[in-house]
Amino acid sequence: MIVDCHGHYTTAPPQLGEYRDAQKAALVDDPGHVGELGSVDISDDELRESLEPNQLRLQRERGIDLTVFSPRASWMGHHIGNAHRSRYWSQQCNDLIRRICDLYPTNFAPVCQLPQTPGDPEASIANSVAELRRCVEGMGFVGCNLNPDPSGGWWNGPVTSDRTFWPLYEAMCELDVPAMIHVSATCNDHFHSTGSHYLGADTTAFMQAMTSGIFRDFPEMRWVIPHGGGAVPYHWGRFKGMSEENAAKGWSLLGDLMDNVVFDTCVYHQPGIDLLVDVVPTENILFASEMVGAVKGRDPETGEFYDDTKRYIDRASLTDEQRSLIFEGNVRRVYPRLAPLLDAAATAGGAEAAW
């Protein structure tokens, strides 16, 4: 099977954005506005219409069997509003993901966003644990997206190794679900959201894990660092050397981090993928495309879509066994709750037993 571990619902009907706009409008007059969960009136037919010409069409055209699917990352917007607004927004977005997975149980597997909020890290994590449990225990989600910078580009909150994160990590380990480390849009003009902010955050989260030794406290925790791992594969020697020189200070060695950290293949050209698979151990690479995402166009030099990353893996210097690990084997290990969904998708008539 070909499993894409990184997909976002970027084509939602306009009612979802209207709900968010109403939240923002209420906060203008009263930043502490609580409000209520309310509803987003989107029919099943509208969900289908938003997916059939987009993600589902591309799955069929590109030979992808199943996508691990989560709310739109740039819309998580943890820096907007307060804890109540973030909680309601996350619930609405996650409920839509569950509905999509019910409509297409052999095409999508659900991953949740968390209601993180800057300014009150303990409340932020407590709300995130509650939403994680609601989604995993109550709705069959297989993982979560964790924002290392809910401030939206200001990086003024606790680092990911801070003990305020520990209740979330404990819940992740208990529930046996990984986190994709994924920021949202930035409100800092120094950064472009899907360019410098996303890739810089990937690198920053990896560095925080290395310098803190956090996985010694949580040896079963798993992180998926997207977008090919940011700068890490390209500067592998720098990270390896720094970890060795600072091991006495408690840093984790690069090799040790590979027990807990994996990278995806959201790298949009062949030389980048070739570097990734040459430098990073095969067991630490998950196939992903992030379509429909940040880069939707065709490369004028090849005529192929930049985000058609399966082509790059097919052409890379890999054995059939390595490709099988990247396309399916590794994601089964990192997302163990995904296995029943994959087995159901591979078995005719098994979708009803997916979760």
How is this fold's topology laid out?
Blueprint: E1 3-9, H1 14-29, H2 44-62, E2 66-71, H3 83-103, E3 108-113, H4 121-139, E4 143-146, H5 166-175, E5 179-181, H6 193-212, H7 214-217, E6 223-225, H8 236-245, H9 254-257, E7 261-264, H10 270-279, E8 285-286, H11 309-315, H12 320-334, H13 339-346
Parallel strand pairs: 1-2, 2-3, 3-4, 4-5, 5-6, 6-7, 7-8
Rg over CA atoms: 19 Å
Strand content: 5-15%
Sheet/helix structural class = alpha/beta
Low-confidence stretches: 348-355
Instruction: Output the CATH topology.
Output: TIM Barrel
> What CATH first level would be assigned?
Alpha Beta
Condensed summary:
The chain has 355 residues and is of the alpha/beta class. Helix content is 46%, strand content 10%.
Which descriptors apply to this entry?
single chain, about 350 residues, alpha/beta, TIM Barrel, eight-stranded parallel beta sheet, 13 helices, globular, disordered C terminus
Structure report:
The chain is of the alpha/beta class and 355 residues long. The protein has helices spanning 14-29, 44-62, 83-103, 121-139, 166-175, 193-212, 214-217, 236-245, 254-257, 270-279, 309-315, 320-334, 339-346, and strands at 3-9, 66-71, 108-113, 143-146, 179-181, 223-225, 261-264, 285-286. The protein has a single domain (3-345), classed as Metal-dependent hydrolases (TIM Barrel, Alpha-Beta Barrel), CATH 3.20.20. It is built from 13 helices and 8 strands. It has an 8-stranded parallel beta sheet with strand order 1-2-3-4-5-6-7-8. α3 packs parallel to α4 (121-139) and α4 (121-139) runs parallel beside α5. The model is unreliable at 348-355 (pLDDT under 50).
